[in-house]
Amino acid sequence: EVYGMDLHPAARFGRGIMIDHGHGVVVGETAVVDDDCTLLHGVTLGGTGKVRGDRHPKLGKRVVVGSYASILGNIHIGHDSKIGSGATLMHDLPPWTTVVGHKGRVV
């Protein structure tokens, strides 16, 4: 089966990553996905287009990112956090945080 993913060759991935139904997943050049993270279909780990250099998200261990969520910019997502489907996130998150909704509301 063929999957339509755009994983930049310079992006860094830890061990035990699961990309479930990977269609539409985009991971930018300076993104980091640490051990045991899960990315569902349509996830974007992208830049904001405003800076050069280190410009993509860094995910801690065991982060789960729901389908069609967008995590943008040089931000850090703490370990064991959960990003809900369709959420847009452009700010750091501490560990053990859950975010839902288009505006990335912490619950």
UniProtKB/TrEMBL annotation:
Gene Ontology terms: cellular component: cytoplasm
Organism name: Ostreococcus mediterraneus
Gene Ontology molecular function, alphabetical: serine O-acetyltransferase activity
PROSITE patterns (UniProt xref): HEXAPEP_TRANSFERASES (PS00101)
InterPro entries in the record: Hexapep, Hexapep_transf_CS, LbH_SAT, Ser_O-AcTrfase, Trimer_LpxA-like_sf
Annotated catalysed reactions: L-serine + acetyl-CoA = O-acetyl-L-serine + CoA
One Pfam family recorded for the sequence: Hexapep
EC number: 2.3.1.30
GO annotation terms (biological process): cysteine biosynthetic process from serine
CDD domains reported in the protein's UniProt record: LbH_SAT
Lineage of origin: Eukaryota, Viridiplantae, Chlorophyta, Mamiellophyceae, Mamiellales
Signal sequence coordinates: none
Name of this protein: serine O-acetyltransferase
The entry's keywords: Acyltransferase, Amino-acid biosynthesis, Transferase
Homology family: Belongs to the transferase hexapeptide repeat family.
